[in-house]
Amino acid sequence: MTAASVMVARNKQYPKLHAQMLLCPMLDGRVITISSKQSHTNTPCSGVFNATAWETVLGDRRRTPDVSELLAPARATNLSDHPPAIIDVGECEVFRDEAVAYASKMWECGSSAELYV
Fold first, then answer.
1. Could you tell me which residue ranges the Alpha/beta hydrolase fold-3 domain spans (predicted)?
2. Domain holding 100: CATH number?
3. CA distance 107 to 7
C-alpha cells in the first residue's frame, strides 16, 4: 500500500511526501523470485500463501503484463521523484527478492532507498 500511495501522490501532484517505509512489502504478483520458491511452503507467509493472495486480487492477469503498477508496484518503470525509502525485509522470507529489486529500481531511477535485509 505504501509504494502505491507514493505513486498516486506523485502522479496526481498531491502534497509532496517526505519519506516512506516499506516493511516486508508485497510488491510483485508474478511470484517468480528465488525467495518465493525457497519459502514455498515452510513459513507462515509462504510462497503458496503469496500466490493465493495475488490470485485473489488479480485473478488470471497475475502473470500477464496487463497489471497496473498501483496493484503491483514492482511493475513500475519510473520510480523517480519518490521520497526516500526505508525498505526492511527478512533474509528468509518470501518477499526478500522483490524488495531488493524494488530498492535497486529506486536507485536506478535516482531515488534514495535504505535497504535492510
1. 2-115
2. 3.40.50.1820
3. 16
The strand pair at 20-23 and 85-88 is best described as: parallel
DSSP helix/strand/coil, 61: helix
Number of domains composing the chain: 1
DSSP letter (8 states) at residue 42: S
CA distances 73 to 19, 36, 41, 84, 99, Å, are 17, 17, 24, 16, 10
Four-residue CA torsion sign, 39, 61, 9, 102: positive
69: domain range? 1-115
Note the pLDDT tens digit of each residue in 6-36. Answer: 999 999 989 989 999 999 999 999 999 999 8
pTM for the predicted model, two decimal places: 0.92
Query: CA triplet 3, 76, 72: central angle to 5 degrees?
Result: 60
pLDDT in tens, 62-91: 889 899 999 999 999 999 999 999 999 999
Q: Rounded CA gap, 16 and 43, in Å?
A: 37
